[in-house]
Amino acid sequence: MDRAPTAVTGLPDAAPIVQPHRPLLTRTGWTVFLAALVAVCALAPALNLLVPPTSAFHLGEYGVALLARIMCYAICALAMDLIWGYTGILSLGHGLFFALGGYVMGMYLMRQIGRDGNYKSDLPDFMVFLDWKELPWHWALSDSFVATLVLVVAVPGLVAFVFGWFAFRSRIKGVYFSIITQALTYAAMLLFFRNETGFGGNNGFTDFKRLLGIPLQVPGTRMALFVLTGLTLLGCLLLARWLVRSRFGRVLQAIRDAESRTMFCGYDPVGYKLAVWTLSAVMCGVAGALYVPQVGIINPGEMSPANSIEIAVWAAVGGRGTLVGPIVGAFLVNGAKSWLTVVAPEFWLYVLGGLFIVVTLFLPDGVAGLARRWRKT
To answer: pLDDT tens digit string along 132-157?
Structure first.
């Protein structure tokens, strides 16, 4: 039986009370969710196939690819919100988990090329070019789609679990934790840049041709991946909402607000932080796996510290601790980036830095907080 939350930490108080059942979504919430589901599954393919290409509402190949990429980023922003907005852990290395999921999927896609590659070999082209004679040990399961799906979850999750185990048990927190996560992703980037590791070096993986034997360049395949990405985003949103509204989520928020008091109340912050940290990394890994076949490339640049900082910017702009806010932030920032890098690419980094400063100083609750204030006036 749940107990009434205290005013400061949200932890159960001493006197037990019976709380009414709280549904996962309200009636309005379910309406919005079902509308989004219909939009992803039906509206987007209809706009692509039925609306004339000359229409402003036509969703062409570029639009499909752009929205799918942003939805992958939105999953990362949602994962960042779980650990930063609800647990108070700022990670500057989540790009590592995104890239690890992408590399696992990229290895499978490279094996799918087979003898259709430039060198007509069962080995990936870059391995033939580097005069490799056989696949490295870590490529052993790369020809199995089922094993790939497992590894997409297992590899980022295992790396996050091991890192988090040592970091959280050592009580590393605050800016020190953020710096260590950034160092971790930077070290991994340098490792993947080396040709000897068997990950394609500077160029990474590209020139993908098939997924499960189905050509990737066919519009139907791209639309199917688009729909799958949208459904995954909606599923992650429901999972995150269920999590933060549960007893587990209340403890996470208590850790964010007063970790020492939470520990003195009998809760072990290490286990809770480790669990949500690992889940967040897995969500990023899944997003990376969906990203690679749609974009067509994965290289060590995805592990750059700048990419991880951008994930934090999306969450900050949208509004931490709101779930929907980081998703909105990912769409706003990446939509602006897509437009500005075409119109004035040299100004984008200045705009991004200025945006982060403005949000930090004047909009600490992000766009979601601004919308809440507007509704009250």
So the answer is: 888 888 888 888 999 999 999 999 99
By C-alpha distance, which of 358, 344, 351, 311 is closest to 93?
A: 311
Q: Please enumerate in sequence order all residues whose Cβ is within 8 A of that of 67, keeping only pairs 6 or more positions apart, or say none.
A: 44, 59, 226
CA distances from 23 to 20, 230, 238, 242 (A): 9, 23, 12, 9
What DSSP designation does 195 have?
Answer: G
| Residue 221 near residue 313, CB atoms below 8 Å | no
Residues 6+ apart with CB under 8 A from 16: 1, 3, 4
Burial 267-283 (b: 16+ CB within 10 A, else e): bebbebbbbbbbbbbbb
Longest dimension (CA), the chain: 72
Distance between CA atoms of 210 and 114, rounded to whole angstroms?
Answer: 10
Q: Rounded CA gap, 278 and 24, in Å?
A: 23
Which residues 6+ apart lie within 8 Å of 181 measured at CB?
91, 92, 93, 94, 163, 308
269 within 8 A of 83, measured Cβ to Cβ: no
Does the model's pTM come out above 0.85?
A: yes
Asked if residue 317 lies in contact with residue 333, where contact means CB atoms within 8 angstroms, the answer is yes
Contact 375, 333 (CB under 8 A): no
Amino acid at residue number 282: V
pLDDT, one tens digit per residue, over 14-39 is: 333 334 445 666 666 666 666 666 66
The angle subtended at Cα 41 by Cα 31 and Cα 329, nearest 5°, is: 65
CA 300 to chain centroid, in Å, comes to 17
Q: Taking a C-beta distance cutoff of 8 angstroms, is the pair 98, 291 a contact?
A: yes
The number of C-alpha atoms within 13 Å of 371 and in the hemisphere containing its C-beta is 11
Dihedral (Cα; 152, 204, 79, 1), 10-degree rounding: 20
Q: Which residue intervals of the chain are DSSP H helices?
A: 27-38, 44-49, 61-80, 94-113, 125-129, 145-169, 174-193, 219-244, 247-264, 269-295, 305-318, 324-343, 348-362, 366-376
* Contact predicate 140/237, CB 8 Å: no
